[in-house]
Amino acid sequence: MRPLGSEDLKWTLAGGSATESATFYIKLDDGGLLFVQLAHSSIGLSPTVQTTAQYLSDGIHKFETLNRSSRTFKTSPDKSSVSVEGLSIQNNPKNRGLDVKASINSLNVDFKFSIVDCGFQIGEGKTFFREITATNFICHQSFPKGLVEGTVTIDGQTRQISGQGYYIHAVLGMKPHEVATKCNLITLQSGDNALSLLHFDTPNCFDNIPVTQSSLILNNKLVAVTVQNTARYVTTKTDPENGYEVPTEVHYTMDGDTVDGKPFHCEATIKLSNLLTKVDVLSELPYILRKIIQYLFTKPYVYQYYDDAEVVATIGDEKVTFDGRAFFECSFLN
To answer: Is 139 within 8 Å of 125 (Cβ atoms)?
Structure first.
């Protein structure tokens, strides 16, 4: 594990069939949720860019997504900041964070994400699949806790927001179906504590091996990062629209050592009942890209939930428990 600061964030814009994304998962202090994502993809005849924002609070739920022209996509000279029509993510090393502005249909957000302690990446940040090549990898840079202050404007009405969030910058150097058949992510912010876990199952060509990474923050300090994790669907329910076995309860385990060398074990359970969004991925893509992905995949879908979760962490002889509302996302790729 290598600690990261905002100065380590660089957009790569890898060639080939790469997809690069920046995603914020923010738990608001009023119990609501803010989700913002920018995704740049080189799959297809020309690059595509998708911007997405989702806001949930006080009985309001807005989900907006738009495809943008890649001609408006720009990076700063040092590639630490990025912008496209309707969305910008500006690196602010002076304040150790990121400044984000998004305007997507009737939903406008403007906030500062200030890093708590540090981010991390596993090793050099890249996981290679059998051969070490320029395109045969995935990369994740995670910032498991940040403080958020800003505004949300919906249909001309502005409200102040504050909260805590998780930020992940991901680069996928391969076509998605070549990497995973199913993936899921959980992030839980609970006061001075936080847990995040990313998990995906590789396809048959990579022996269905799960690839994971997780982190635990206690008292606003990154205390553990591990790749020895499990994500088990305890119960599922069949989605009649596509036949996928969608989880209704998920149990996670994490094992390893803390950053100061103590043995570490953590378990988390989330029961899923509050479905925020179900996304038919193909319906959100431009025509040419949709036709390409239809050829590669059967029927990619994404499910997003926001539900209560419980965490029990054991560090040496000490046990720590915390709970709160967690964002959970699962994706079925084929």
So the answer is: yes
CB atoms within 10 A of CB 34: 25
Structure tokens at 35: 């989700």
Range of the domain at 319: 176-333
The predicted model scores a pTM of: 0.91
- The reply to whether 134 and 186 lie within a common domain is no
Rounded Cα distance, 214 and 199, in Å: 9
Would you give per-residue pLDDT tens digits along the chain (334 residues)?
889 998 889 998 766 667 889 999 999 999 999 999 999 887 655 678 999 999 999 999 999 999 888 889 999 999 999 999 999 999 998 889 999 999 999 999 999 999 999 999 987 766 665 555 555 667 889 999 999 999 999 988 999 999 999 999 998 766 655 667 788 999 999 999 999 999 988 777 677 778 899 999 999 999 999 999 999 999 999 999 989 999 999 999 999 999 999 999 999 999 999 999 998 866 555 444 555 555 555 678 999 999 999 999 999 999 999 999 999 999 987 6
Residues 12 and 140 in one domain: yes
What b/e string do you get for 68-88 counting C-beta neighbours within 10 Å, with b at 16 or more?
A: beeeebeeeeeebbbbbebbb
Same domain, 107 and 202: no
Number of domains in the chain: 2
